[in-house]
Design a protein that fits this description.
Elements (H helix, E strand, L loop, with lengths): L4 H22 L49 E6 L5 H19 L3 E5 L5 H8 L6 E5 L2 H4 L7 H13 L8 H12 L12 E4 L5 E2 L7 H7 L4 E3 L2 E3 L8 H11 L12 H5 L5 H6 L6 E3 L4 E4 H4 L2 H13 L1 H4 L4 H12 L5 E3 L5 E3 L2 E3 L27 H7 L4
Parallel strand pairs: 1-2, 1-4, 2-3, 6-10
Antiparallel strand pairs: 4-9, 5-11, 6-9, 7-8, 11-12
Length: 395
């Protein structure tokens, strides 16, 4: 019996469709894009694992009222370098951190600017917190370009950096900011009795409820520095930073921690991105992204760090190149401090465009667990956590 031609055509099409669907089901899944492989031997972000608070003693939000003079608060502050015109971005950051953490602990906010803060800035920021707010002017001698810097060379260097595509390379105020954040902020008179700080910038986000005093955690567990995001830097911005560091280290071997205790291997790795190590003359360019940092200023005030910063400052790379406070802080920590005193705050959900730290925790909202970036796939190769975990661990 012959079926009508339309029926035969339909049957043939159905058969082809069934074969196609079976092929799709049976074929091997496509490989994971290399840019998304977090470890050489793993295909998942550790933030996909269930995230808990740090181990050990934690101080809860008891007796931390803003007006309690006998509260358990220690000599610490939330710190921000910010301009008047960034007030709306600062308010957004404050709302996030107050909602997730500081409304429970009421640590003061200290704002810094190279020009006086406006009343509008003060009114809007004070409205976001019950904690005290302090508005500080940076001394001119801390912000100005040093007198040993050749301004003609700075201009020419800036043009070259811009031509090479180095971000902010030709913006003198950015260079000044990096220098101040590297070696001047902790000398401000307003911070002379302050030991710990949490750095917060405008337009950042915090996603997770943090129910313990992070400053007490740093103090009680003998931590020097805390980070969330760990990245590679642009080698074009720091070609002589590592050679200058090695010159300093050769002159001051007494400042170096033993290589079994420090994080030097993380700084010198050349396996994962060999071109970075080559172009940065021996430096992997791995660094803690310092727009988030919780730190003990006693490290910056130490003789080792002060001598290191002064050596770099005299070398001129803050202005002739684009040395940032992130690699400067990170190199110093990696060489002069025990790696065990550096802590990954994996439980603090954080975003500074375009990167995230997104824990797997019921305390987090608005942040997809394990997300590193919501940008293009090529940004995944900028993640240097795998090297930190490889050489140091997840503590």
């Amino acid at each position: 019996m012959m079926f009508p031609k339309p029926v035969r055509a339909l049957a043939l099409a159905s058969t082809v469709l069934i074969i196609f669907l079976m092929f799709q089901l049976l074929k091997r899944p496509p490989p994971v894009k290399e840019s998304r492989i977090i470890y050489p031997d793993m295909r998942t972000d550790p933030n996909l694992e269930e995230t808990h608070e740090p181990e050990g003693k934690l101080w809860r939000a008891d007796d931390y009222a803003a007006d309690n003079p006998n509260s358990p608060r220690i000599n610490a502050t939330i710190l921000s370098l910010v301009r008047n015109e960034e007030v709306n971005g600062m308010v957004q950051s404050m709302r996030d951190l107050e909602r997730t953490w500081n409304h429970k602990f009421n640590y003061p906010w200290t704002f810094f600017n190279d020009v006086p803060f406006t009343e509008d800035f003060k009114i809007k920021t004070r409205a976001q917190t019950n904690a005290p707010c302090y508005y500080e002017l940076i001394p001119k001698e801390h912000w100005a370009v040093p007198n040993w810097i050749n301004h003609d060379l700075v201009r020419e260097s800036g043009k070259m950096l811009a031509k090479e595509g180095t971000q902010y390379g030709n913006m003198i105020s950015y260079h000044q900011m990096c220098r101040w954040n590297s070696g001047k902020f902790y000398h401000h008179p307003a911070l002379k009795d302050v030991r710990y700080y949490w750095r917060v910038e405008p337009k950042v986000h915090f996603f997770c409820d943090v129910d313990y005093d992070v400053f007490r955690y740093m103090q009680d567990h003998n931590k020097t520095y805390g980070f969330t995001i760990n990245l590679y830097d642009d080698p074009k911005s720091i070609p002589t930073l590592w050679p200058e560091t090695m010159r300093f280290a050769e002159a001051h071997p007494e400042y170096l921690k033993n290589d079994t205790d420090n994080a030097r291997a993380w700084l010198e790795d050349k396996q994962r991105r060999p071109e970075h190590n080559k172009n940065a003359n021996g430096y992997s360019t791995c660094h803690f992204w310092s727009n988030f940092e919780i730190a003990d200023m006693e490290f910056w005030r130490s003789q080792a760090y002060e001598d290191y910063f002064n050596h770099l400052d005299r070398a001129g790379g803050f202005f002739y190149e684009r040395w940032g406070d992130a690699p400067v802080h990170s190199i110093a920590l990696g060489l002069f401090e025990d790696a065990s005193k550096i802590h990954w705050f994996r439980d603090i959900g954080y975003q500074h465009i375009p990167y995230f730290n997104c824990p797997n925790s019921p305390k987090c909202t608005g942040c997809r667990k394990g997300l590193f970036t919501d940008g293009e796939d090529f940004l995944y190769k900028e993640d240097c956590r795998p090297n930190w975990f490889k050489y140091v661990g997840m503590g």
